Amino acid sequence: MSDNDSKDVAESDTPSSDAVERDEHGAPVDVAYAKRIKSFVVRAGRMTPDQREMYKVQFAEKGLTLDGGMLDYSQVFGNDNPVVLEVGFGMGSSLVEMCQANPHLNYIGIEVHTQGVAKLLRDSADAGVENIRAYEFDAIEILAHCIPDNSLQGMQLFFPDPWHKARHNKRRILTGEFAETMRQKLKVGGEFHMATDWEHYAEQMLEVMEAAPGYENIVGKGTYHPRPDFRPLTKFEKRGEKLGHGVWDLIYKKVN
């Protein structure tokens, strides 16, 4: 779900990306966002040798890499079902639950933390879920190189890192530029669903999305969406509720 869910996990085992030309700093030369201020920090975590071996096996089956280039969803999933993309799924429990509840949809998750991706794949295998694929990489690069324009039925951004200190607000992933990137990837009629438990970030999300061209707030201009039943209640969200945190959902439809 979110970077918050997996702050203490990550040991990068990211697949090679040699096919992408990079500068002397390692930044892709043809990716507009490459030298941007990133919205995440990867911190070291641990996996046992057995867990790492299982991860390699499961990633070979359901993992996707930057080197794979632009996706052909019918080849990836073996069907033509609509595709929903989630950026920052954390440990993946809610994404697995959504896959189970919606077998008529295909899901792609993007997460930078190795242990989060490993747990998603492990839980998917345990549950017999087949309609999920995952990247362990920076979402901005995946969006630029791997996700076709006008192809997604839905986009999910649940509980992204709020970077709550004022000096860190600039690291928040949702900006006008990111909203435009997502508009390009969504089909007309596709929906961009966001959720956060930080009120200030919710206000920023609302401000950004209301100003973003080509979108329509599905419950009315300047309005938050009531918590939808189809978004699973996560352990992270339950913990926040116990602390008295509110939760704000926003859903915008691409109109052009």
Account of the protein in words:
The chain is 31% helix and 18% strand. The protein contains eight helices and eight strands. The chain has helices at residues 49-62, 73-77, 93-101, 114-127, 139-145, 176-185, 199-211, 235-242, and strands spanning 63-64, 83-87, 106-111, 132-136, 152-158, 186-196, 215-217, 248-254. Strands 1-4-3-2-5-6-8-7 form an eight-stranded mixed β-sheet, with helices on both faces. Strand 2 (83-87), helix 3 (93-101) and strand 3 form a beta-alpha-beta unit.
Give a short synopsis of this structure.
An eight-stranded mixed sheet has the order 1-4-3-2-5-6-8-7, with helices on both faces. It has eight helices and eight strands. The protein has 256 residues and is α/β, with parallel strands linked by helices.
Short key terms for the protein model shown above:
256 residues; alpha/beta; Rossmann fold; eight-stranded mixed β-sheet; 8 helices; 31% helix; globular; disordered N terminus
Tell me how many strands there are. 8
Widest sheet: strand ordering? 1-4-3-2-5-6-8-7
The name CATH uses for the topology is Rossmann fold
Please give the radius of gyration in angstroms: 17 Å
Rounded mean pLDDT score: 85
Unreliable spans:
1-18, 22-29, 31-42
Strand residue percentage:
15-25%
Shape designation:
globular
Q: Any idea what the CATH superfamily is called?
A: Vaccinia Virus protein VP39
**Cα distance spanning the termini:** 28 Å
What is the share of helical residues?
25-40%
What class, by secondary structure content?
alpha/beta
